Prior knowledge:
Radius of gyration: 36 Å
Oligomer: single chain
Largest sheet: 7 strands, mixed
Structural class: alpha+beta
Distance between the termini: 48 Å
Amino acid sequence: MPDLLLELFSEEIPARMQGKAADDLRRMVTDKLVAEGLVYEGAKAFATPRRLALTVHGIPARQPDLKTERRGPKVGAPDAAVQGFLKATGLKSLDEAKIQRDPKGDFYIGLIEKPGRDAIDVLAEILPVIIRTFPWPKSMRWGARSGKPGSLNWVRPLHAITATFGLETEEPDVVKFEVDGIATGQTTYGHRFMAPAAISVRRFEDYEAKLLGAKVVLDPERRKDAILTDAKQLAFAQGFELVEDQNLLDEVAGLVEWPVVLMGSFEQEFLATPGEVIRATIRNNQKCFVVSDPKAGKLANKFILVANIEATDGGATIVAGNERVIRARLSDAKFFYETDLKTKLEDRLPKFDQIVFHEKLGTQAERIKRIERLAAEIAPLVGADVAKATRAARLAKADLLTEVVGEFPEVQGLMGKYYALAQGEDASVAAACEEHYKPQGPADRVPTDPVSVAVALADKLDTLVGFWAIDEKPTGSKDPYALRRAALGVIRLIAENTLRLSLMKVAVSALAGLSVKTADAQKLPSDLLAFFADRLKVQLREQGARHDLVDAVFALGGQDDLLMIVRRVEALGKFLDSDDGKNLLAGTKRASNILSIEEKKDKRTFDGAPDAALYSLAEEKALAKAIGEVKAEASAAVAREDFAAAMSAMARLRPPVDAFFDKVRVNDDDAKVRENRLKLLNEIRSATRAVADFSKIQD
C-alpha cells in the first residue's frame, strides 16, 4: 500500500515547541485518515529547527465504498416530505426506496451509496485544513506573498511544503494543494549554511538519506545521541566528566540540524563561585554543558557547546565567541555572589514586610512567622532541636531577596544554604534552608535531618492550611498553588522518615496562626485530611498498592497518623492476598449484603448483642464464641500497633463464618431467631471493623 511523506519547511521553530508540534502533526493527520476510512499501518513524525516531517505508511490507495440506509417519511406522507426525502437520498422516485414495517407504521427506506475516493484526493483535501488549523502555542502572520496579503498563521514563515504519496516500487505522486500561495512539490532544502541547495525527494527513505547527505539529521533522538556521545568522549579525552542534563540536551538538540560538539574554557578564578551558580549561568545564557574534574571533586573551568556547523577553522571562532560571553556572564554571577555575602540573611528579612505572599494570607513576613511557630511545635515530634528548627524557619526564605536567586530562581534554597554556612550558622540550620522545599516531586529526595524535616513540614502544612482556609483548593486539573505536590511532600516526609504525627492537631495549630477568618473552621482539618487520603491513594497506587484499602482504613474515622495508616494498609493488603483473607472478605460481604436487604425490608438496623439463649445450632455458638475472642484479640493488637497480629486474629474467623453460612438459615421462620441471627451477622461486620471497613474493599 502507498506511503505518505509530508514536510513543512520554515524558518527556525523554537526548540521548546518542536516535540509537541511533531506529535500534533502525527495525531491530526492520522485521526483524519481514520475518520475518512483510510486505516494506516504506522506513522512517525520528526522535527528539526527548520522542518516538521511526517511519514505514514500502509495507507490504502482508495477509500472503501460506503452504503448507508436513511429512514424517510411514512407511506402516504405529504408530497413535500417525500420530495425532501428523495432529494436527500439522491433517489429518482419512491420506486427505488424500500418499505420497512415498524410498530408505528410503514416507512420508506433509502439506500445511499457513496463511492470511495482515491486516497490522494482525500489527502489533498485534509492536509491544507490541518496546516491552517495547526495548534501552535504562538504563531505569526507575515507579509504579502505573490502580491497577496498573507493569510496563514504559522510559528515562523513557511517556505515550502513537500507532500508525496505512492508505492515503494513506483514514482510517487505529488499531493497537490496550495496554502497561502505555497504549492506542494517534491523540493526541500538541506543545512542552511553547509548545504543550502534545493533537494528533490521521492519518499521517506530517500528523503531522510538525502537530508543526511545535506548535513541534516532528521531524527531528534539521533541528534541527542550524537551530542551526548561526542560530549562524553570530548570530556573524557581531557580527563573530565560531562555533567549530564537531560532538559538541556532536549533543548540543544532542537537548536541544531547538524550537531558539532566543541569545548571551551573560562578563568580558574570563577570556580570560587558555587558550582550550581556557574552551571546555571552557562546553561541559561549560552545553552552549554559544564564538566567536572573527578580528581578534584568539583567543576572544571571548562564547558561544552554544540554548534550547528562544521567551521573551516575547526570551531575556534565559535568557541572564542562563547568564551567571551560566558566570561562576562560569570563575572556578573561572581559579583552577585560576593555582593550577597556582604549582607547577613536575617538583615534581609525586614524587606519581606513589603512583599505580599497572597492578598488573603498576608505578607511574606507574616508567613515566615507562622512557619517559625509551626516548626517549633513540630520539632519535638520529629526529634529536632527546637531552637535550630526555629532559626532555620526564620532564615529559610531570606535568600529569595539575594541577587543570585533574583537572577537564577532555580537555585533558591541552595543559595540559602551557602550563605548560611558562610555566616557561621549551624550545619543543620544551613541544610534546612535548602531542604525545606523538598521533596518537590516523586523523584526528588526526602530530607532526613530532623531540623530540615520540621521546617519542610511547617512550610508545606502552612501552605495547605492557608489555601484551604481561603477556599483556594485544587479543582479538576487546576492546581495553581501546587497543593497536591505539597500534600504528597508531607506524606513522603512522614512515611519515609517513619514519623508519628497527628495531622489534625498540626492542622488545627496552623489554622490558629492564621489571621484570616475561615467560613467553617471546624470542618477544615477533617476536609484537609480527606485531601491527604486522596493523595495517599495516589502515592500507594504508584507503589503498586490498592487504593481501596486506603478507603477501608480511613472509613474507620479518627485516622490522622499517616504512618500507621500506611502500615495498616500494608498489613491488610498482605492479609487479603491470602486464602483466609479472600474467604473472610467474601463472608463479610455476604453478611453485609444480607443485612442491607433485611434492614431495608424491616426499616430498622440489627444492632445490639445477640441473645445466646436463642442459639440452637452449634455453628451459631461457634461463630459467636469466635467473634468475641477475635474482636478482643484484634482490638488489642491494633492498640499496640501490631497490625500483622490483628490480621492473624481475623483469619481465625474464616472457618466459623464459612460453617455458619453453610449450615445456618438466617431468615428463620421464627421471628426472634431470625432477628438474633441478623444481629450475629452484624457482629461479623463489627468485628472486622477492628482492622478496616471491609465494605469499602473491592472484590
